Structures are given as C-alpha cells and as structure tokens.
C-alpha cells in the first residue's frame, strides 16, 4: 500500500460548523451516560485507586482521539472511518466498517434512550411503565433537530453541552469542600487488578471520538477546527470524569461502591433539594445530547454508504457538505426502531444491545487504526499516535473475545455483498 505522503490531500469541503458547535458535538459523543453510572462501578472495582484509572484512560485516549482528528482534518468525508478504510484496504473492508457503525453501533441508541428514561422516571417518581415513552421522546427530539440540518443540531448541542457542564461543575464545586482525606485509605483495597478493571470500564466512557469523522466535511476549516475541538473536548471530558471521581470517592466513601446511582447520591449530599432535580436534568441532557451527536454521524454515513453503492442509491441525497441527509436519517430511525422494539420484547434488558454496540465499536477502532497507519504520512505525529492506538485497539479486540460475534455477522454480510456483485458482473459479461 502506498503512502499518501506523495499524494496531495483532497480538497477541503466548505461546511458551516465552527469551533463552538464542533467542540459541543465532540464533548457530547464522549461525555455520555457514563457520568450516571461509571463513578460507582469504578469505585466498586478499584476503590479510591479508581482515580488512577481515570487518569490512565485520559492518557490512553490521547492517541486515539488524536489519530481520528488527524484523519478527519486531512480527509473530511461523510463516510468517516469507512472512507479511510476504503483508501487503505479497499471496498469490502470499507463496507464492513460502514455496516459496523451504521447497523451495529446503532444498537446503542435505544440503550441511551432507556437509560435516560429510567433516571428521569426515578427522579420524577414516574411509574416504570412510562420509561418506553420517555425513551422514545429522548430519541425523537434530536432526530427532529437533525432533520433541520447539522447547523441547527450543532447549536442545539452547544446548549445541551453547556447545561450538562454547568450541572457537573455545580455538583463538583459543592462536593469538593466536603471531600474527606480518610476516604482515600486504603488506596488499593483490591490491588492493581482492580485498577485494571476500572480502566476497562472507563475505556467505554471515553469512546466516541470516531463520531466527528463523519461530520468533518461540515466544518468551515477542518484542518484548524477539528484538532482544536478535539483538544478542548479531551480537556473538558477528562476533567469532568476525574473531578467527579474524586468527589464521588471523597464524599460517599465506601458507600460509592454499593451505589447504583452515585451521581444522584452525591448531588443529594451536597445540594439538598436541588440534587434530585439536577441529576434528573443531567440524565435527560446527557441522553438527548448523545443521541444528537450520533444521529448527525449516522445520517452522513448512511448517505455516504449509498453514494458508494453499499446502500440503495435513493438514500444518497444530503451526502454533500451542507446537505441534510433526511432519507438516511429516516433509515437510521427505522433501524433504531427495530432495536427498540426488540428491547421492549425482552423487557428492557439492555445487556444484549450494549454487547452489539461495543463489539462493533472495538472492530471499528482496530480496522480504523490500521487504515490510519497506511494513509497518514509515515513518522508524522498522527502516524505515531495511530501506532500507539493500534496496539491499544488490538488489546481491546483480545478482551472482547466472543463478544465480537455481532460484528463478525455484519462482516460476513459485507463480504456476501461483494460476492453477489462479482457474480452479477460476471453474468453480465457473459
């Protein structure tokens, strides 16, 4: 495979998003529902040393986020990672990657909706029977915003992200004076193995950097805005998770490990009365914000897949920079609706859908980093970050094991499409 060092970069698309909306979309794709549950799960796994796990994952996120930023800045294409894979590994591998994101990662959408619905129902004391209705609302609101275009969705995301960060800052600021040093002893109650488990948990919290690759063409100046937005998002998300983990352990102590809703308990401890409302607001904001960011990516990817013949051509409209991929967005919501119906049929059991989501994410990261090594200029900063990220992604693949079955099924479908096309072409030739 030849290096792109001897080839000029493609023409940069002229989008309309600036640094403010771009940063908000990046923050939303990473600072997600993990805020609601991960501090307690990590504290259970590693105790006070869970703070070390957060620092480690922030450091590990830098090469992954940096690689995607380098790719998106140089190759602003609605296909995102699938487009990079197409350049490096060919059409079949690109189709696999596109299907992994569009049909696999999409399984996480109803999970986000139900998680947000569960928290809002608990805080507002709504019967659990109302969770599906709340979940549907959480999914439909950002869908409507994206139908109006990425600029509207971007400004909506700016407002949501601002509200989210404001609530996190308020809770953490109120909690820090109440942090007890004694809560951090013993520091390693479960040894370094516990820290390893906590790191694995937070890896999923810091996933989402690939979302920006699909909307890279919507930025006014991708080469300047994307790296800057990524850097700002890294600082904001890293600081939020780290400070929240310190506050959770320092205020709740051993109780943090046994708490299924640590953010709610923390807010009630330091902001009586306001705490419950704040957490309910956070749950709704996080859920709608994550859906908003991901739908922007799904819409553009669907149109790009159609442009390359991997979906029916009818869905191609809106693939160009500034275009609104309404047809692809409608298909996305159709896929989400199927997953949501299946989730309702199994009694809102989230685990199978989380496994489908995460197995496809790991596959995308692994193949995406291989593509980055092949198309980024060798020995450049981006190339070195891709090398580190490729090693880390290989480790994630090994950890995933049998959970990769859903992505394997989609890969086989992609290969089947290639075989079918070749058979059809040969018949036409004869």
TrEMBL record:
Subcellular localization(s) per the UniProt record: Cell membrane
A Gene Ontology cellular-component term: plasma membrane
Chief subcellular location: membrane
Domain of life: Bacteria
Entries under InterPro entries matching the protein: AA/rel_permease1 (IPR002293), APC_superfamily (IPR050367)
GO MF: transmembrane transporter activity
Keywords: Cell membrane, Membrane, Transmembrane, Transmembrane helix
Keyword NADP annotated: no
Keyword Ribonucleoprotein: no
Membrane topology: Multi-pass membrane protein
Transmembrane segments: 24-43, 49-75, 96-117, 129-148, 155-179, 191-213, 225-253, 273-295, 328-348, 354-376, 383-401, 407-423
Descriptive protein name: Amino acid efflux transporter
Organism of derivation: Microbacterium immunditiarum
């Amino acid at each position: 495979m030849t290096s792109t060092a001897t080839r000029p970069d493609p023409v940069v698309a002229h989008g309309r998003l600036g640094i403010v909306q771009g940063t908000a979309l990046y923050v939303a794709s990473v600072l997600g529902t993990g805020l609601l549950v991960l501090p307690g799960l990590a504290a259970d796994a590693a105790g006070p040393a869970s703070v070390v796990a957060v620092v480690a994952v922030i450091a590990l996120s830098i090469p992954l986020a940096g690689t995607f930023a380098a790719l998106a800045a140089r190759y602003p294409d609605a296909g995102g990672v699938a487009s990079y894979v197409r350049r490096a590994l060919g059409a079949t591998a690109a189709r696999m990657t596109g299907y992994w994101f569009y049909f696999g990662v999409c399984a996480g959408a109803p999970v986000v909706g139900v998680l947000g619905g569960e928290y809002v129902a608990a805080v507002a004391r709504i019967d659990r029977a109302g969770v599906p209705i709340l979940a549907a609302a959480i999914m439909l609101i950002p869908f409507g915003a994206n139908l109006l275009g990425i600029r509207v969705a971007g400004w909506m995301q700016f407002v949501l992200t601002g509200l989210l960060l404001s609530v996190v800052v308020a809770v953490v600021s109120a909690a820090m004076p109440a942090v007890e040093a004694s809560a951090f002893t013993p520091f390693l109650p479960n040894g370094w193995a516990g820290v390893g488990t906590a790191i694995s948990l937070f890896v999923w919290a810091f996933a989402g950097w690939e979302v920006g690759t699909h909307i890279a063409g919507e930025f006014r100046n991708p080469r300047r805005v994307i790296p800057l937005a990524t850097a700002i998002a890294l600082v904001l998300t890293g600081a939020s998770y780290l400070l929240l983990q310190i506050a959770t352990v320092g205020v709740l102590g051993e109780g943090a490990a046994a708490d299924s809703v640590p953010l709610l308990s923390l807010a009630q401890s330091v902001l009586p009365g306001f705490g419950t409302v704040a957490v309910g607001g956070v749950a709704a904001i996080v859920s709608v914000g994550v859906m908003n960011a991901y739908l922007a990516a799904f819409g553009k990817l669907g149109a790009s897949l159609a442009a390359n013949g991997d979906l029916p051509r009818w869905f191609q409209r809106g693939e160009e920079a500034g275009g609104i991929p309404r047809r692809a967005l409608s298909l996305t919501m159709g896929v989400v609706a199927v997953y949501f119906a299946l989730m309702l049929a199994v009694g809102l059991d989230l685990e199978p859908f989380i496994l489908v989501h995460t197995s496809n994410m790991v596959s995308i990261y692994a193949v995406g980093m291989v593509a980055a090594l092949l198309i980024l200029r060798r020995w450049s900063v981006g190339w070195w970050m891709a090398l580190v990220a490729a090693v880390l992604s290989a480790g994630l693949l090994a950890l995933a094991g049998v959970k990769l079955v859903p992505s394997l099924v989609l890969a086989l479908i992609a290969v089947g499409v290639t075989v079918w096309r070749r058979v059809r072409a040969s018949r036409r030739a004869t």
